[in-house]
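Quick one, T. Sequence first:
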Amino acid sequence: MTDNTPVRSAARPVPSMTSAGGVDAQSVALVAVFTALLVAAAVVPGIPLGGLGVPITLQTLAVMLTGLVLGPLRGGLAVLLYLLLGFVGLPVFSRGQSGLQVLSGPTAGYLVSFLVAAVVVGLAAQVTVRRARRSLWVAFLLVASFAATVAVVHVLGVLGLMVNLRLSLSAAVSADLPFLPGDLVKDVVAVVAAVAVHRAFPDVLARPRAGARAGSRT
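Structure tokens:
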């Protein structure tokens, strides 16, 4: 008796978690490395500014660099892992702080903004590196970083000051403004470093999909 069931080609690509979700050894390693970078940036002693308990640190530089290099998914995961490590009790926040109680302090809005900012600049980096000419990378990423710094980091930071310290809008903005020039300078450093990484390692954000490569052979 003959079996007339069509035989499928063994060469047909089978979807995998690696190609579909981007979960591979390289991604895990990069997330771990940049999480460690975020921790290291927080460990460096901050410079006190004003009397509200919000120091100048290298954290915003590390956050922007993480998003710009890793993109929205892996960059967001690195920042999320960093935040979770702090929330469960490891002293990875500025001045050795840890625990959920930081969410009731003056830095709460800034901490929350780190995750959002990393995703925003990560999306900008992903689109820029994959679609724009290399000569435009710095300009595009600077605009994205400046916008994320002002509209995400500082807006959420001001909201955190208003909610947790019961400050008026004008008082919270006045307390936040001294941090802005330094953060914009950090953006420039982060963008220059990220562009250098993408030029040296063009596959970090522009890797061809494994499924697409396999499908082209069938």
